[in-house]
Amino acid sequence: MNNKVPTGIEGLDELMDGGFLRGKNIVISGVPGSGKTLFCVDFLYRGVKYNDEPGVYVTLEESPESIIENMMGFGIDLKSMISKKKIALVDANPLRGETIITTTGVHTGFVEFKAYGLSELIRQKVREVGAKRVAIDSLTSLLMHYKDNFERRLEIARLLIGISGLNCTTLITTELHSFLVDPKFLTEHFIADGVIILDMMQVGGRMVRGIQVQKLRGVKHDFDFHLYHITDKGIVVFPKEKVYNP
Ligand SMILES: Nc1ncnc2c1ncn2[C@@H]1O[C@H](COP(=O)(O)OP(=O)(O)OP(=O)(O)O)[C@@H](O)[C@H]1O
Ligand SMILES: [Mg+2]
Question: Which domain holds residue 66?
């Protein structure tokens, strides 16, 4: 079996020799509004449509209704994939409250989400739809309970260990330049198998979007910042156009 998992995002796979490696976890780290959610949803949607790979999407912040509505703007019909049980959209925002089942019982309503409960929930949903792809959006929401870098690192490790063995290619979003995170301690970037950066930069007096494959263990990849656009059809990367990140 081919162990490459194409993202299908226009122009991106050629920067990384065809795609991600199967079963690995990749951090999608971006500034606000850079397309992190779109990247994840598109990855799962295309997985179903072109690769026959069902997916699980876990939202820790934006509501499922808002995601479904916003993605319609890109021609992504999440609702139909959900009703066909090809994608499970899981609301894990502790402030909204979802019923989850962990080894300590069934919890409804406010649950202080920790990596352990979250990985239990993901495992359960992966089994339900036979998922091969997972997206967790965003890790920053999970980590905001922890001020201490050591605790943060432990929690990320618990999450990754909790979902390892599922053999799902997993995207995990994080906020770049977040005031919650000291950039010196972007622990998740070190722990993950791969890191994609979605940034915004000033070039010739205008703001442009730049994407970088910063790290992908086991893959020969490009590491320049390339221009990308968000269009009606989703993210479009221009692999021949480099942008400078100051
Ligand atoms: N039809 C469209 N055409 C072009 N750009 C669009 C369109 N619809 C939305 N956008 C852009 O996409 C961005 C939203 O993408 P998305 O929600 O995936 O970003 P995000 O990085 O997840 O944001 P957040 O930091 O709020 O979670 C908007 O801020 C807007 O700039
Ligand atoms: Mg988002």
Answer: 4-174
